[in-house]
Specification:
The complex is a heterodimer of chains A (about 325) and B (about 550).
Chain A lengths: L1 H34 L4 H6 L5 H10 L6 H13 L13 H36 L4 H14 L3 H15 L15 H35 L2 H8 L4 H12 L1 H26 L4 H10 L3 H29 L1 H5 L1
Chain B lengths: L10 H22 L15 H5 L8 E6 L29 E2 L7 E2 L2 E6 L5 E6 L13 H12 L13 H4 L2 E6 L4 E6 L6 H7 L8 H4 L11 E7 L3 E6 L6 H4 L6 E6 L3 H9 L5 E2 L4 H6 L4 E3 L5 E6 L9 H10 L2 H8 L29 H10 L7 E6 L4 H13 L3 E6 L2 H10 L5 E6 L6 H7 L14 H10 L7 H16 L3 E6 L3 E4 L3 E2 L18 E2 L2
Classes of the chains: A mainly alpha (about 325), B alpha+beta (about 550).
Chain lengths: ~325, ~550
């Protein structure tokens, strides 16, 4: 009971700590956007506009208010659950995010699952058996994948499997609830392109963590007790090397979202990455600001989950 | 390898694995290589005679692709934003429209009469023309469009409507009866056909919903159905279309437009057989499927603007020299992939200002150098050519051409919004490259509506002759011999003291699948839209 109470207070404390993080990131996003040349009025006005018309549009959008006032208005609305309307097309930002989050989350989850499914087993086997065939395979795999940017591997996969062979669609997204088979077909290539790159990084760290642990006395003891290789690795080595693996996996949540931005462009998936890229091009401040706050929130929550997972894995953390 | 015994990989297995990997990489490379001019597996299109003999098939879905998402809040349908391409022509229409000439065809109206001095217009809406929701088209709906263009801020419109100056020429609008309306202009205006041919009509009462994409009403052959922002939008057939008798359609059940991240993705989707039409296809994709393309009539130019107040560029002989320095044939054949014709004028063949002699390369570097010498041109500093990312190749060719005649050139790529802001503010120092449209309308409209020709143009070009030409044209019938004499004066100015240098024609290249029919002829200016009411898809 005591540790559950400590866990709950730990979670609440971390959530409260996240508030200044979110505030600082919101200020950062807000200011950086306004440093970029041109504003939404410029983007909307078009090249035919007179300076007077541009000024009129700026007034219509509330961009003629002082910057601190614009920020306070936005944050105050956000605190009340109102993300505002897109400066470009007048649609509620919440609606745009609601439409674009599922494709990105689908891609991130499936890519992450691929990364874990490839990276951890490969890393474990390479770490447990250094300089073996598994280690060679890991080296070859990481050289092949880390060296190729995900957008390039995406384009190659698209070309071969979608255009030449016609096995997969070239673009788009189908909701899983509408047609599960088609949904998975649309997800296959982009998630593979994204996940295989992440798997390489995960595999390297897993290999290092497992190789370090394999040299410890308790592993030697376990082997001396006659336990099978499989039990030694799964019950002792892997569990004790999970802390750094979870750390890197949590950090990769950021990599997944960043990679999703690129992959969504290549495969024309209508996700948050595409939404943010186009919003930046159109100087759609409201969409960019709100989308980035959402992404930062996701990142903070994933890292919080990682911290909580430490507690379950390592009793020493629970006792602190 | 001895130290690896027991846990090591034998060398044979390593070499075998590496060989297989290399073979796989080579295979992928070979698969990826292909003849640039291959048709990607698509069969050739049927001959024109065979196509003419076919009977249109009703039904089916037409799949279109485009890159940027639509925007309904910036003044659509009165603002012809580039991003609203299909949306401007499929669900909405104008009172009159152009065909092969600038003689307007009555479309939503069956009466369209000016008074003797063209200071008033009376128009009567055709009987039975309705919006997609069944409501009749009324004069109030037409007036609404004009009012919005006169005061866009009142309707929360955030775009800049090119037709706004024209709308301000209209000083009074009167509803004569349920279908007849009368417009009064500030003075006799000979080119108001262009205004009414460009102005699309939508339902006044549903405009607030249109701006949110909830209820887009028009009179066109297809009705706006759904919109998933950043993903796709679609149209459904208008079974009560007023044009069915003359056009035969709409033949299709639905038209679905998918949005792509970029033109490469668009091209790949076409090659994979997922698209029927790409309006404005990327040139590399169009080149691969040349026999399935159609080039729309020229609507304007890609051009190089010159700041004539720059002391080094003030002398008309210097600007003439630069005109002769440009290899237009290379621009059309290499950059344009052979689509479009070599031209040194903004006018298409349908324009009363068209001069066949100006559809020529005008490329003479020797003459260019001679002119520069005669003008005493010397320059030790590099000239800047600013351009967007879409004109990188034109910039490179222009740099080569200008440097060949003795100029030093610095290319500056400017982000699109920043470029538009500089164009509006007339802040280019030396040269810039961009594109204009609207020269397929009457020449006077082009001078009034198109940035490089307007009174306050980014080149700061002014001349008594040019002002006089415009003043004269404001009093003349656009196709009269007197007007043609003024066009000839303009064309002479164009060559003698250029402030805009033609590079390539602004011609859209449309790419079709082998199943598309009914696309034999384009509609007229502006923009040469596809005839959606006649298009059908072979089963």
């Amino acid at each position: 009971m005591a540790w559950r109470f400590r866990l709950a207070s730990y979670i609440i404390g971390r959530l409260l700590q996240a508030i200044p993080t979110l505030l600082l990131s919101s200020i950062g996003v807000f200011l950086v956007l306004r440093l970029v040349p041109g504003d939404p009025a410029d983007a909307l006005a078009g090249q035919d506009a007179t300076p007077e018309r541009v000024a009129e549009i700026r007034g219509q959008l509330g961009l003629d208010e002082p910057i601190p006032v614009q920020y306070l208005n936005w944050v105050s609305d956000l605190a009340h659950g109102d993300m505002g309307t897109s400066l470009r097309n007048g649609l509620p930002v919440s609606r745009l995010l609601k439409l674009s989050m599922p494709p990105t989350l689908e891609l991130a989850v499936v890519a992450y699952a691929i990364a874990l499914a490839i990276g951890i087993p490969l890393g474990v086997m390479a770490g447990a058996k250094p300089r073996s065939g598994w280690d060679w395979a890991l080296s070859g795999y990481t050289i092949g994948t880390i060296g190729i940017p995900s957008f390039l591997s995406g384009i190659l996969l698209l070309w071969l499997f979608a255009v030449i062979l016609g096995w997969f669609p070239t673009s788009g997204r189908v909701a899983f609830s509408d047609d599960p088979v088609s949904s998975l077909k649309h997800l296959a290539l982009p998630s593979f392109a994204l996940g295989t790159g992440l798997a390489a990084v995960l595999a390297r760290y897993t290999r290092t963590a497992v190789a370090q642990v394999m040299g410890h006395d308790y592993i030697r003891t376990a082997k001396a007790k006659g336990l099978t290789q499989r039990v030694v690795i799964m019950r002792h080595a892997l569990r004790n090397s999970l802390i750094p693996i979870i750390t890197i996996a949590a950090l990769q949540a950021g990599g997944v979202m960043a990679g999703a931005v690129v992959i969504e462009q290549v495969f024309t998936r209508p996700g948050m990455g595409r939404l943010v890229v186009e919003a930046i091009q159109n100087r759609d401040y409201m969409v960019v600001q709100s989308a980035l706050v959402v992404l930062v929130t996701i990142f903070v929550l994933v890292n919080l989950a990682a911290d909580i997972a430490y507690g379950f894995l390592d009793p020493r953390v629970r006792r602190r | 390898m001895k130290e690896l015994a027991g846990t090591s990989l034998p060398r044979r297995r390593v070499l075998g694995g590496a060989t297989m990997l290399a073979a796989g990489a080579v295979s992928i490379g070979l698969v990826g290589c292909g003849d640039d001019d291959s048709s990607g597996g698509a069969p050739s299109s049927a001959s024109p005679a065979a196509r003419a003999a076919e009977t249109p098939t009703k039904g089916g879905t037409l799949a279109l692709g485009k890159v940027s998402d639509i925007n309904l809040s910036s003044g659509y349908p009165f603002y012809a934003a580039a991003e609203n391409g299909y949306l401007q022509d499929v669900p909405v229409e104008s009172l009159v429209r152009y065909g092969k000439s600038l003689d307007p065809e009555l479309w939503l109206v069956d009466r369209f009469e000016y008074n003797a001095d063209r200071s008033k217009l009376t128009a009567t809406i055709k009987q039975g023309v309705t919006f997609h929701n069944g409501a009749p088209l009324t004069p109030d709906d037409v007036f609404f469009g004009v009012q919005l263009m006169q005061n866009p801020a009142k309707y929360n419109v955030t775009g800049t409507i090119q037709l706004a100056p024209f709308a301000k020429f209209i000083t009074d609008m009167k509803k004569v009866d349920e279908r007849t309306m009368e417009f009064t202009f500030d003075k006799p205006r000979p080119n108001m056909n262009d205004f009414f041919a460009q102005m699309r009509v939508t339902q006044a009462s549903s405009y607030a919903k249109l701006q949110k994409g909830e209820d887009v009403q028009g009179t066109g052959p297809y009705a706006f159905k759904t919109w998933r922002p950043n993903q796709a939008f679609s149209f459904v057939a208008n079974k009560n279309w007023h044009g069915t008798g003359s056009q035969g359609g709409p033949y299709l059940d639905t038209i679905e437009v998918t949005l792509f991240a970029d033109s490469d993705a668009l091209g790949l989707a076409y090659e994979a057989g997922n698209l029927d039409i790409i309006g404005g296809a990327p040139r590399p994709t169009a080149k691969k499927f040349r026999n399935l393309t159609k080039v729309a009539p020229k609507g304007g130019l890609t051009y190089c603007g010159i700041n004539v107040t720059n002391p080094l560029l003030k002398d008309p002989r210097v600007r003439q020299a630069l005109m002769y320095a440009i290899d237009r044939k290379r621009l059309v054949e290499e950059i344009g992939e052979g689509f479009g014709t070599v031209t040194n004028q903004p006018w298409p063949e349908t324009s009363p200002a068209f001069d066949k002699a100006l559809d020529a390369p005008y490329y003479d570097p020797v003459k260019a150098k001679t002119l520069l010498q005669q003008a005493g041109f010397t320059s030790l500093r590099a000239f800047q050519i600013e351009h967007r990312n879409t004109n990188v190749n034109e910039g490179s060719v222009l740099k080569e051409n200008f440097e060949a005649v003795g100029l030093k050139i610095e290319l500056i790529q400017t982000e699109a919004n920043a470029f538009a802001a500089k164009l509006r503010a007339r802040e280019f120092k030396d040269f810039w490259i961009t594109t204009h449209a609207f020269s397929d309308l009457t020449p006077l409209t082009n001078f009034q509506q198109t940035i490089p020709y307007q009174v306050n143009n980014p080149s700061y070009y002014q001349s008594a002759d040019y002002s006089d030409i415009q003043a004269q044209l404001e009093k003349l019938d656009p196709v009269s011999p007197a007007a043609k004499a003024q066009y000839a004066r303009f064309n002479k100015l164009w060559l003698d003291e250029p402030w805009v240098l033609a590079l390539e024609p602004n011609s859209r290249v449309d790419l079709f699948s082998t199943k598309v029919r009914g696309n034999e002829e384009y509609l007229g200016a502006p923009g040469s839209a596809l005839p959606w009411g006649r298009i059908w898809k072979k089963a």
